[in-house]
Write a structure and sequence with these properties.
This protein is mostly helical. It has one domain. The protein is built from five helices and no strands.
């Protein structure tokens, strides 16, 4: 699969992940009065599961895959760097920008955008790096 098409599929999965992440975060913070930092951990973990499934099924479907458990473990480990970057940006913005503290979804968007670049490169090079399947 061409790089441009992979980027498009990865971006589509990212949009889906963002909607899941932001929706859960919003519900936990505004609906259930959770702390915005703790809520972000849970919302991110759920969104990461969704995006892993998407990328396995669509973005990198043309590559041979590891067993589900092994691949999920690799995904979580490798995505940790992007997740830390994402969370750091989110936390700084929530702490320093009143508007983001009131609307944490804005912090999710900023963190997600920056981390998407890191995550795509890591997903392609490390998680889904198996040979292409025979046609």
């Amino acid at each position: 699969m061409k790089l441009r098409r992979q980027l498009a599929w990865f971006a589509a999965g990212g949009v889906i992940g963002f909607v899941v992440d932001a929706g859960i975060l919003h519900g936990l913070v505004n609906g259930m009065q959770w702390n915005p930092y703790a809520a972000r951990v849970l919302s991110f973990l759920i969104a990461a599961s969704v995006t892993w499934g998407w990328n396995r099924t669509f973005t990198f479907a043309h590559r041979r895959h590891l067993r589900i458990g092994a691949e999920w473990s690799r995904w979580v480990t490798v995505m940790g760097g992007g997740a830390l970057l994402n969370y750091a940006i989110y936390a700084v913005l929530v702490a320093c920008v009143d508007m983001v503290h009131q609307w944490p979804v804005l912090g999710v968007a900023a963190g997600s955008a920056v981390a998407a670049v890191v995550n795509f490169c890591a997903a392609r090079a490390v998680v889904f790096n198996g040979p292409e399947k025979a046609s």
